[in-house]
Amino acid sequence: MRKLIAGNWKMSCYGGEAIELTEQINAGLEANPDLGLDAELLICPPYLYTGIVQSVLGPVSDVLVGAQDCALSENGAHTGDISASMLVDAGCEMVILGHSERRQNHEESDDLIAEKAERAFEAGLKVILCVGESAAERDAGNAEEIVGAQIDNANFEGADANKVVIAYEPVWAIGTGKTASVDDVESMHGFIRGKLQEKLAYGSDIRILYGGSVKPDNAKALLSVPNVDGALIGGASLNAESFLAIAQAGIDAAEQMAAE
Ligand code: 13P
Q: What CATH superfamily is the domain 3-259?
C-alpha cells in the first residue's frame, strides 16, 4: 500500500505563500516524478486557497487537495460555514475531521465530528479522522482508553477502506518538536489496528497515519513502524523540500518493509 503523505497547512500561509509553496512542490515533482507515483500526496490549505492551489497544481497532478474541516450542515442558511459538497465542488477529495485544534478551540465533540463525517461521506469526500490523547491523559495511563473511545464514537457508516483514514496525533506532539517514541507509536498504532479490525470487516485495510512533529530527519523511522501507513504533517509541510523529503522517506520505508 502506498503511504499517504498529507500536509496540513493549518492557518499558516497567505495566498501568495500558498502559490509559491505549490509551485515549489510542482517543481520538486517535475524533478522527481516517482515521488508523486510511489507515495500518495495530499495538501490541505486553508479553505480560501484550495481553489488557488488546485489551479497552480494544474489539471493533471499527482497531488490531491483536501480541506481542514467542513460544516455540520448541508448548504443553506449557515453564515460562515463551508459545506462538504462545496468542498467537492471546489475539487477537494479529502477532509480532515476532528483535529485536536478543532476539538480544543471549537469544543468539537465526538458526536459532532461523527455528524460531520456523515456529511462528508454523503458528499463523496474521504475523511481523515484525527484521534489522540493529551499529555495529562498519557501521563495518567489513559492514552488507549481515550483513543479507543474516539474510534468507538466515530462514524463509519457509508465508509469503506478507501473512504476513511485514521490519523493518530498525540496532542502533546503537535507543533512541539516532541515526537512519540517509535515504541509508543508501534503500540498505539497496533491498538488502533486491533480496534478497527474488531469493528469493521475492512479494518485491516484502513490507513493509519502518524502526526505530531514529523520532520525529514525522523520520518523514515516513524514511517517504518508497522501499521504506520503515512504521515499527517503540520509545520514541515510548509516547506516543499521538507514535505517531499518526508514523502521520499515514506517510499524508502515502504520499500524496505516490502523487502523484509
Ligand atoms: P506538526 O507537524 O507541526 O507537529 O503538526 C501536526 C499536525 O497537527 C498535523 O495535523
A: Aldolase class I (3.20.20.70)
